[in-house]
Each structure stands twice: as structure tokens, then as C-alpha cells.
């Protein structure tokens, strides 16, 4: 059975004006801000390693993938996302105060991708709120496509499940995922993509309206026709 669950700081340079400079008139139009290359060059925020999940609750979640922690697991998730594997997949096991699990196209917790299971890449990164980790069976080398996002810390999972990323934006939308095992009306991943693809948000269609029963007059008209 699948898992029963789930720097640098940017420094701003203070510009100290000299007394002479202080007397100068402020320009009417402020000069353009200098281009900050530290973000684009920092592998921690490389858009190639940011997984974007558009959820059926209308939210967009950004997950920073960390190949430094688990290169094979990151590569697997990126590959499956690129193939559209996760599109339409539900969060099938969502436990309040614990985690939300997804990645099984069958929605049962028993399924996975056609690809072979991965060898464990356990690491010392703690399972904190927002941690994204790979699901598996009781055997260590059985992670495949399922993963979970932590609502709250659970350090008992450390060094037992492969932590491969962390939510960096949209955690409030993770909090809004419908609970249940499985939920009656599960939240699903509408679209999974990499930030480097710059895909627009998909249109989230509303739930279909309930179909009302035909009236007696409508039935009679249908029969006469």
C-alpha cells in the first residue's frame, strides 16, 4: 500500500548621499531599477527547478525542487510533469494537521507511473510545513510518482522518506485542499508545469449544475412528440 501519509539572502546596498548630492534636485522620472541577476543565477530559484501546480480550487502553488537533496526524484517529477502525467490527478489522501498526497492516476493510492520505482535518496532535510516528499510503500526503494505536501512538521518522517522540495508560494491553496481518504469532492491538479515553461493558468471550469427532473408537462409533450 502506498504511504499512509506525506542562500543566500538578497542584500540591498544602501546608497549614502554626500552633502553635495543632497542638494541636487530629484529627477522627475526615477531611473530604471538595476537588473538583479542574483535570482536568475541562483540554482535555488532556477525556474527549471520550480514546479507549478494549478489546482482545481483556483490556486497556483510553486514548489522549489532541490536536486541537491534528491536528484533522481527531482528528475522523475520534472519528467512526469513535462509529460502531463499529473494533469487531472486528485489529492486522494488528505489528513488534517498532517499532509496532502497526490500523484496516483488511479486515485486509490495504489497506482503510479509506468516508469520503474526509484532508489531511495533519504536526506537530513526535516519534514516541515510546506515540505514536499515522495510517497512509497513499506519498502524504501518503491517511490514512483506519488508525493505529499506537509501541512505541519512531522520529524518522524525524516530520513525515512525522500524530501525533494518545498512550497515557496501558494501554501494557502495547499491548506484549502479538501480533506478525506479519499475526499468526497477531491481537489485535483489541473495542470503541472515548470516555471521555465511560463504556462498560463488554465481555465478552471465550475462544477456542472444539477440537472432538474422534467416536469409533468414536459414529459407529456415529449410523449406526444
Shape estimate: globular
Q: Based on the structure given, which CATH architecture of the domain at 41-196 is correct? A: Beta Barrel
Oligomer: single chain
What is the succession of H and E elements? HHEEHEEEEEHEH
Structural class: alpha+beta
- Sheet with most strands: strand arrangement: 3-4-6-5-7-2-1-8
CATH class of the domain at 41-196: Mainly Beta
Main sheet summary: 8 strands, antiparallel
Count of alpha and pi helical runs: 5
What Rg, in angstroms, do the CA atoms define? 24 Å
Describe this structure in words.
This protein has an eight-stranded antiparallel sheet with strand order 3-4-6-5-7-2-1-8. It is built from five helices and eight strands, in the order H-H-E-E-H-E-E-E-E-E-H-E-H. It has helices at residues 19-23, 38-41, 71-82, 171-175, 216-224, and strands at residues 50-55, 60-65, 91-95, 99-102, 131-134, 147-150, 163-169, 189-194. It is of the alpha+beta class and 225 residues long. It has a domain at 41-196: Beta Barrel (Cyclophilin), CATH 2.40.100. Helix content is 16%, strand content 19%.
Provide key terms for this protein.
single chain; 225 residues; alpha+beta; Cyclophilin; 8-stranded antiparallel β-sheet; 16% helix; globular; disordered C terminus
Amino acid at each position: 500500500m502506498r504511504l499512509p501519509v506525506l542562500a543566500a539572502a538578497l542584500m540591498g546596498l544602501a546608497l549614502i548621499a554626500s552633502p553635495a548630492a543632497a542638494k541636487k534636485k530629484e529627477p522627475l522620472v526615477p531611473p530604471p531599477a538595476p537588473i538583479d541577476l542574483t535570482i536568475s543565477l541562483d540554482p535555488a530559484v532556477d525556474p527549471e527547478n520550480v514546479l507549478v501546480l494549478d489546482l482545481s480550487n483556483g490556486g497556483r502553488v510553486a514548489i522549489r525542487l532541490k536536486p541537491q537533496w534528491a536528484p533522481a526524484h527531482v528528475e522523475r517529477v520534472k519528467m512526469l510533469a513535462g509529460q502531463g502525467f499529473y494533469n487531472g490527478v486528485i489529492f486522494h489522501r488528505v489528513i488534517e494537521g498532517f499532509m496532502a498526497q497526490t500523484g496516483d492516476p488511479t486515485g486509490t493510492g495504489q497506482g503510479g507511473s509506468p516508469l520503474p520505482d526509484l532508489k531511495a535518496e533519504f536526506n537530513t532535510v526535516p519534514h516541515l510545513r510546506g515540505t514536499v516528499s515522495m510517497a512509497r510503500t513499506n519498502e524504501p526503494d518503491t517511490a514512483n510518482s506519488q508525493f505529499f505536501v506537509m501541512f505541519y512538521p512531522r520529524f518522524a518522517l525524516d530520513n525515512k522518506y525522500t524530501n525533494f522540495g518545498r512550497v515557496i508560494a501558494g501554501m494557502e491553496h495547499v491548506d484549502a485542499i479538501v480533506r478525506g481518504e479519499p475526499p468526497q469532492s477531491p481537489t485535483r491538479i489541473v495542470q503541472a508545469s515548470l516555471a521555465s515553461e511560463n504556462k498560463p493558468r488554465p481555465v478552471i471550469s465550475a462544477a456542472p449544475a444539477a440537472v432538474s427532473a422534467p416536469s409533468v408537462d414536459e414529459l407529456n409533450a415529449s410523449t406526444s412528440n
